Amino acid sequence: MVRRHVRGLSVVRRYKLEVVSKPHQSRSLKFVIAGAVILGTVAWLAISGARDSSAKSYYVTISELQGMGSAAYTRHLRVAGNVQPGSITRVGTTATFTLLEQGKVLHVNYQGTEPPPDTFKDDAQALAIGTYGRDGTFHATQLQAKCASKYAPAKPGDKPTGNTAPLKTTASL
Fold first, then answer.
1. What whole-number distance in Å separates Cα of residue 121 and Cα of residue 91?
2. Taking 80 as the threshold, does the pLDDT of residue 113 lie above it?
3. What is the model's pTM?
4. In sequence order, what are the residues at sequence separation of 6 or more whose Cβ sits closer than 8 angstroms to the Cβ of residue 59?
5. Separation between Cα atoms, residue 1 and residue 53, nearest integer Å
6. What is the pLDDT of residues 3-34, one digit of tens each?
7. pLDDT tens figures, 38-96
8. Do 117 and 145 touch, CB atoms closer than 8 A?
């Protein structure tokens, strides 16, 4: 309230203060909040990605692996090559075999939770994921294999390969 004296009279005027929201201020606030959320998310992704370095694996050739020295023993690696014919030994979910690449040889010991894939055969291209041991053997925990030959229709008169037994249905059991 403000009091004024005008010619002997006291005049009281009341002023109302109205809070007027300016449209550009509310938009700016929304952009600031959205920017903070985005920056927080990006920072969280960067920190969590850097912290979980065990999930990263580096692809190396057999030649590169054998030339890495002591750094090869501490990294999670991926190594590819062709499976040497006659080198596969399977027992349950484990397998030992030899990979060949450009004249270089790498012995692999696979111990996974699942047996090697059906396409894992002699001369197949294989990708082993794991660690390199000081014993010179690559210890794989995952194994991927590509079929050694292209899929093509069987020639007339050829015997089918693989499991050709008829499927049993639950109704016949």
1. 14
2. yes
3. 0.55
4. 77, 78, 79, 80
5. 68
6. 555 555 555 555 555 555 566 677 788 888 99
7. 999 999 888 877 665 555 677 888 888 888 888 778 888 888 888 888 888 888 888 89
8. yes
Residues contacting 35, CB < 8 A, separation 6+:
none
> For the chain, what is the domain count?
1
Q: Which helix (H) or strand (E) holds 28?
A: helix 23-51
Token representation of residue 138: 């690559």
Indicate whether 88 belongs to any domain. yes
Six token digits for residue 168: 């049993």
Q: What is the CA radius of gyration of the chain?
A: 35
- Select from 147, 146, 148, 126 the least CA-distant residue to 138: 126
Q: In which domain, by residue range, is 103 found?
A: 56-146
Q: Are the C-beta atoms of residues 81 and 122 closer than 8 Å to each other?
A: no
**Quick check: is 16 in a domain?**
no
CA distance 156 to 42: 59
